[in-house]
Amino acid sequence: MEENTTGTIILAALSTLTPLQMSAFTNNISALFHFHQRRLASLLSSRTLFSLTLHHLHSLSLHQKSFLIARHLLSTLSHLTATRMPPNTVTILNDRDRDCVLLLLLLCEVHQHEPDSLKTLSPVHWRGSLSKYVSKTTLTLSGLRLSSSDTLLKYIEVVTRCRKFVDVMGCGDGKERKEVAASVAAVVALPSVEVKIGGKECAICKEEMKLGRDVCELPCEHQFHWMCILPWVTKRNTCPCCRHRLPTDDVYGEIERQWKVLVKIGDSFH
Question: pTM of the prediction?
């Protein structure tokens, strides 16, 4: 049920893209997948790199593994929401963390489709078994390109697998997360606009915003005095009027925020 819900939400959001946006999205995702496939191929072809990555993966706690998957999920979601919200620095993974995520996702996939293939092997022999599985199931490693429909299906599959993993780890329980500060990048990106209609008041200080004065406008189009809104967004990431959420540097909060954006986009289309 959860997988169907996740796929439905992603499909609904994708259906709102214009042909030009869809083409750009598909190209970006295709390039991302090919990059990940090259990283995975390098990882599996190098005994040393595989050993180091597997050792680091084993050293991580369950929460740390979930956190890495969550960042990977957020990065993947950001490709779909990029036209609607500013990028977030918490999605950036270094090479070691990215390799750990790709290896962890591959292990989960193998466990799902061939649960007995690794049970009889010691970890030092996993590399050969994983390489055989990848070569058997992933034609793109031979240089063949995915079609647009294949790319979209693979995208939905990756999002679904990552979200399911994060939920299983107990970090995506659907509960409201406590408010945290808006990210610095999001605050810096807020525009300054001139007040052109008299009689409007700042919802924070309740004083009138004078004509011709520059004030801050949030993405929801509510306006506030700069001196009022800046202290506000250093403590919470919601609009004082409508609770519209600004990006934060909290990974799980960002997943929840972006997911709600996707749900809203899909609902508005229907």
Answer: 0.74
